Every structure is written in structure tokens, then in C-alpha cells.
């Protein structure tokens, strides 16, 4: 599911979860493809459209990959993140200091006021390690939404069809200097995304846990939070979601009445 781009919002290894200073320092470079215009602009366009003239709240603001350009579009943006180290990187960017940030867990942290749109991009939701925490996140989003507001997530679709009987590992990146693979625990509905890199003859290993959920399960979580699904697409360019889609961008709406 290509995790590792967001702070972990569950039992933490340290105060910053799995995204301490060592990860935050080179985060933008390590995930450079996520910062390219074709990855950022469609997301910002959709979120700005949903925000209208209202405020936006990002769950898992990180180094500001989406929050900064969204704010540059004139949208007032606030963020929540567990990792102070990641937020320090946000603060160092042009325009980053103007974005308000609440340090805390996206399932429970409270921010003053209400928002036209709350969003969690690129598997942030999956970093909550239990179903109960994920349900709490939906409820937290609903609490922060104004009537008619939207909760938007971008989440991977579990690749269980790639697992023949007896196999738990799905590789998703290989090169001469590194490889990456997901290890599934189907019984617990969790996985770890593992990254191995060799630089100048020395190896580095990083592992990030996640809890995967089917789109239909997320729809039920939204219903429990009093939200209803408005749209589901394969990606931010609004391509139709289908049987072979590896990700989905879903919008749930808070009723007006």
C-alpha cells in the first residue's frame, strides 16, 4: 500500500512516532515523486474546489506537501500531526510558518472552529493501527466539519489478490540499490511496508506499520460518524474507480440538516 509517507498515529516508538528527525530531514527528497506537479496539483485543485471560501484542515500535515500549495491558492489551512520533526520541516518552507498546526493524534486532536473540508492524503488513515482508531478519526473529522462540509481521504486498496496461498509478501519496488515490499498479516488486517537501500556499500532498513481497510469498510465508518459518501474516484484526476484501481480518493459529506 506504499506507506511510509506519514507519521504513525498509534503507539509510538518515540514522541514523533516513526517519523523523527532522521526521517523528516530527508523526507521530501526520499519521496520526491510525490512532490512533482502531476502528483500535487490535481489534489490541490480538488481540495480548493471543495473548500470554496471556507477553511481546510489536514490530518497528517507532515512537511506541507499539500497544505503549502493549498494555502497559496488562498485557502486558510490548519494541520494536525503527531511529529514535531515533520512540522519543523514545514515551518522552514516559504509560507509554511503561516499554516497553523496542532500537535496530536488525528483520531482525537481538537482544533478550534469548523472547516469546509477535512482531508487525509496518501494512506494517512491507514497509519491508525486499529479499527477503533480509524472509526474515531472519522468521528473527529465529522466534529470539525461544518454542515455540508466534506471529509476526503486518499487510501490504497489492499493488494490481497497478489497473495497466493501461503504467501504474505508483496514486493512493489526493486532496483540495483534497493527494494521495498509489504508483509501482510491477513488475520489482523495489518501490514508493514519495508524499505531496504544500499548506499556506498552500506545498507539501511526502514519499516512502517499500517492497518488496511476495504473501501466498503471505510464507507461504514463514515456512516457511523454521520457522514455519507458523495464521490469515489481512482485518483485526484477523478478517473473512475474500478476493479483494478490501486488507490481511491473518496469524499464523504456531512448532511446540512
TrEMBL record:
Any single GO molecular-function term of the entry would be: methyltransferase activity
User: Matching Gene3D superfamilies, A to Z?
Assistant: Vaccinia Virus protein VP39 (3.40.50.150)
**Alphabetized Pfam families for the sequence:** Methyltransf_25
- InterPro entries recorded for this chain? Methyltransf_25, Methyltransf_Superfamily, SAM-dependent_MTases_sf
Please give the SUPFAM superfamilies that the UniProt record associates with this protein. Answer: S-adenosyl-L-methionine-dependent methyltransferases (SSF53335)
Positions the record marks as coiled coil are: none
Carries keyword Chaperone? no
CDD domains in alphabetical order:
AdoMet_MTases
Q: What sequence ranges are listed for the domain Methyltransferase?
A: 57-149
What are the protein's UniProt keywords?
Answer: Methyltransferase, Transferase
Q: Which GO terms describe its biological process?
A: methylation
Tell me yes or no: is Signal among this UniProt entry's keywords: no
The name of this protein is Methyltransferase domain-containing protein
The organism named in the record is Saccharopolyspora kobensis
Amino acid at each position: 500500500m506504499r506507506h511510509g509517507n506519514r507519521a504513525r498515529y498509534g503507539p509510538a516508538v518515540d514522541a514523533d512516532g516513526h517519523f523523527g528527525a532522521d526521517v523528516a530531514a530527508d523526507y521530501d527528497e526520499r519521496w520526491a515523486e510525490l512532490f512533482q506537479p502531476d502528483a500535487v496539483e490535481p489534489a490541490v485543485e480538488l481540495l480548493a474546489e471543495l473548500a470554496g471560501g471556507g477553511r481546510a484542515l489536514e490530518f497528517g500535515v507532515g512537511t506541507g506537501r499539500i497544505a503549502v500549495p493549498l494555502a497559496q491558492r488562498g485557502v486558510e489551512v490548519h494541520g494536525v500531526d503527531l511529529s514535531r520533526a515533520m512540522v519543523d520541516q514545514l515551518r522552514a518552507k516559504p509560507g509554511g510558518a503561516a499554516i497553523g498546526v496542532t500537535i496530536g493524534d488525528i483520531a482525537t486532536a481538537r482544533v478550534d472552529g469548523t472547516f469546509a473540508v477535512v482531508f487525509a492524503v496518501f494512506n494517512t488513515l491507514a497509519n491508525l493501527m486499529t479499527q477503533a482508531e480509524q472509526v474515531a478519526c472519522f468521528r473527529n473529522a465529522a466534529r470539525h466539519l461544518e454542515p455540508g462540509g466534506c471529509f476526503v481521504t486518499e487510501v490504497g486498496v489492499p493488494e490481497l489478490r497478489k497473495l497466493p496461498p501461503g504467501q504474505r509478501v508483496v514486493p512493489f519496488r526493486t532496483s540495483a540499490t534497493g527494494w521495498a515490499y509489504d508483509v501482510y498479516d491477513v488475520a489482523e488486517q495489518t501490514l508493514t511496508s519495508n524499505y531496504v537501500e544500499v548506499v556506498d556499500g552500506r545498507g539501511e532498513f526502514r519499516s512502517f506499520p499500517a492497518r488496511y481497510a476495504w473501501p466498503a469498510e471505510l464507507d461504514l465508518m463514515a456512516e457511523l460518524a454521520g457522514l455519507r459518501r458523495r464521490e469515489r474516484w481512482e485518483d485526484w484526476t477523478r478517473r473512475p474507480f474500478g476493479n483494478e484501481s490501486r488507490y481511491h480518493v473518496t469524499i464523504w459529506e456531512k448532511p446540512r440538516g
